[in-house]
Every structure is written in structure tokens, then in C-alpha cells.
């Protein structure tokens, strides 16, 4: 880990539906990528261990429907103890030490409340609060978003005001040459439509200020460059399938105005991808972006 709405007419495009139980797909993809990307195996093992706890928290919150004002206390009491247990059992040594130390210093409910308020937090607080709260917010839905701080604008989640964790491109419809772009919320996992070639960090839309990095080249009209030598960073036998590109369906979308970036997952290129899982595994692309002087709009669950 690092220090890791409806209208009748006209019909409005909706993001791809998220199944009531997204856990099977996340679990499948975590296992698949853990076998494919050995460099991300430790991180994906921890995420895979968390998924069972998060699925249980999702189901319980669906039934319990805690009052919005009690959300932080509910999560701290009903969800976080299991997240802590999993982290201490399956997490890397530095995480286990940080969790044990931090639990002696702060109340768990305050960790959750600070994440709801959108405050800056130390890495371990943010990890515990996010791993515990996210499945609950995902279960209870948009009516609970009012307890979350943050702007409701194009660059923030319309449900909870959270920052975008990643973007993804849906497969193109019959009337479109390219699929629509969506942002996915780091706090509640909701997704919303967002313009292509527009920075999700500051709204910059001048193509001369937006840069794309990927392993297979950029498309016509986009400023960017090809990430080369990625396999050489991964050690021997790190990409056993032998593709020239390690992440052919993922690219870095960076902005020279605010110096932030997101990873974009192209679901047309890899329909089996699960954006939240694929983004976790794409550590070398995040490293490349950092080396170019860009920082992610917000770190992912594992702090990267």
C-alpha cells in the first residue's frame, strides 16, 4: 500500500446497470487478475479477502436500513470489526502494524465520519473507513447521499459528492462510433456520465492540455504517447500470456493544467473487465503516470 435520475423525454443515457449483487463479478475478476498479474497478487489477495466481508455488509445494510444520521456509528459497529479482522489476517505486514497502532489512537466511528465529511485522512484511516463504508453506501442508495459532504457537480458524484476513482468507456451502442464515458465514485461506487477528453479533476477540455498514455497508441485527434517497456518493469514471467501490451484495455488520462490523472478502462476492448478491480491491478500504469509528474485524483482503496 502507498503512504496504496430519470426523465421521460428525451431519454437520457444511463450508465451500465450495476447488479444488485456485484460481488460475484468482482470476485471472479480478482481471481483472474491475481493469476495474470503476479506483481499485484498481494494486493488482490487482500481485496479478494475483503469482498466476502463487504458482501455481507451490503446484504445486512439492505435489510437493516440504518438511519442516515446513524450511518457512521452503524458502520463502525457492524462492519469495521470484520474489515479489521480481515486486514490483520490477510494484509501485508506494514498494513497490519498500521491498523493495530491506529486503533489505539482513534475511535473507528470518527474514521468513518471523517471519510463522510471528505476530510484529509492518514492512509490507514482512509482505508478502513472506505472498505467499511463503501458497501453500505452502495446498498442503501442515493437517498443516503445527503449525509456525505462534497459538491454535486459534473466532476463529483451526483449521489454523495465524492471524487471519481476512475473512468470507464462503455461498449458503443448501435448509433455510436465509440462508447460513452463514465466516472465511478470513490466513496459510494455510483457512476455518472462525463464528457470525453475533459479532465475529471479540473474540467480542462483543451486537447492541447490533455495527454493520453497507453501501451497501444492513441487514437486520431488525441495528444499522447505510448507507454513502452512496461513488461520490462515486471520481472520475468509476469505476463504469462505473452501479449505485447500488459494492459491493452487501460490508459492513463492526464491533464497538464491540474497535473492529475485517472485510469480509463475500456469495456469494449475487454468486456470481462470489472473497472474497480482492473484499476487496482494496474499498478505499473500508475507508477508511469507518477514518473511523468501526475498524481491520481484520489488514491484507490489500497492507497495507490
Word description of this protein:
By secondary structure, this protein is α/β, with parallel strands linked by helices. The protein folds into two domains: 23-147, no CATH class; 164-296, FdhE-like fold (Alpha-Beta Complex), CATH 3.90.1670.10. Helix content is 36%, strand content 12%. The chain contains nine helices and eight strands. The chain has helices spanning 23-36, 41-64, 71-78, 80-90, 93-102, 108-116, 123-140, 275-281, 283-291; strands at 164-169, 181-185, 191-193, 210-214, 224-226, 250-255, 260-266, 295-296. Strands 1, 2, 3, 4, 5, 6, 7 and 8 form an eight-stranded mixed β-sheet that branches. Helix 1 runs parallel beside helix 8 and helix 3 packs across helix 6. The chain starts with 22 loop residues before the first helix and ends in an 8-residue tail after the last strand. Residues 2-20 and 235-242 have low confidence and may be disordered.
Produce the secondary structure layout.
Blueprint: H1 23-36, H2 41-64, H3 71-78, H4 80-90, H5 93-102, H6 108-116, H7 123-140, E1 164-169, E2 181-185, E3 191-193, E4 210-214, E5 224-226, E6 250-255, E7 260-266, H8 275-281, H9 283-291, E8 295-296
Helix pairs in contact: 1-2, 1-8, 2-4, 2-7, 3-6, 4-5, 6-7
In short:
The protein has 304 residues and is α/β, with parallel strands linked by helices.
